[in-house]
Amino acid sequence: MLHTYAxxxxxxxxxxxxxLPFAAAAQSPAPPTTAPTGKVPDNPARGMQAEHSSAxxxxxxxxxxxxxxxxxxxxxxxxxxxxxxxxNRLVQGAGREWRELHNGLITQAGGWLVVIVLAAITVxxxxxxxxxxxxxxxGRLIExxxxxxxxxxxxxxxxxxxxxxTGIVMFFGKYIVLPWLxxxxxxxxxxxxxxxxxxxxxxxxxxxxxxxxxxxKDNFLHAIDWRWMAKFGGMFSSEEVPSGRFNGLExxxxxxxxxxxxxxxxxxxxxxxxxxxxxxxxxxxxxxxVHDIAAVLFICAGLGHIYMxxxxxxxxxxxxxxxxxxxxxxxxxxxxxxEEVKAGKRPEKIVGAQAQPAPGDD
Length: 362
Prior knowledge:
About 65% of the residues lie in helices and about 5% in strands. The protein is mostly helical. It has one domain: Up-down Bundle (Fumarate Reductase Cytochrome B subunit). The chain has a three-stranded antiparallel sheet. Helix 8 (about 250-275) runs antiparallel to helix 9 (about 280-310). It is elongated, with a radius of gyration of 27 Å.
């Protein structure tokens, strides 16, 4: 019954994900039909009348209310009594290029990438379903994660989810949230998201450092891991590729996600979080671009990790929730680790037989 509801929910998610880009496209403003002239009217009263006429739907003099061209003056350093970098410079021309890149290519490509990953995961689940054990559970349990490891993992996981959701609100919100929530509601949601993002970010960095120190000893790559990745763990065949405590894909997530993307997110996030460090605007713009790209990749990879740790594989969620896995699960998915535990070469414990859960109660 649980898997039937999960499949229906996955189909609903797939349909919603495919509809998001079209909803965003529908909110894009139409280009102006008449190019502004940049001239100020001789008679200000006439300009006010034209503005009123335009507001009521009539045709007014185009371009009368355009701001003056400050580029020739404001982009050159001037005198300013306020200390700090670039306080004597009113406008930075590169900001227009950053805005165009941020609101254009990065937003569109990033949005489509998230949609494609969501759709791929949904289709994979609808076709493959939950990966179940081939043999019957024995009832003998093996410790998979101790309390410290679980606490570190869940701290990282909760911070990741909060940062991902608040980041999506700030990055894609005006396309997928503003149309149905309205300006007032979206304003409050964005303010809350910004503050959560700013305060949870440093905690996430601390959790990543702790997680790295805890799990790095079991994540060094070996020849068997490359073989596992080449065969994708036998997910598309009947062959089960042996692995240690973590398989090749989990190690790839550790080094590519936790370490590489974690460092990129941490460095750029701190630059954006603390503008009082006196960094210039070009550094903030570059940090924002790198942060957005790394965040999209992090979210996409995290979706796959969350899927495999929940409904994608039987027993995976219980391993991180309770800390134990069945002996049969260990033999089928991490046989090299299982043999080391049985031989007493690892600190994990083996406990006696336990009552087995009902089918589907994972």
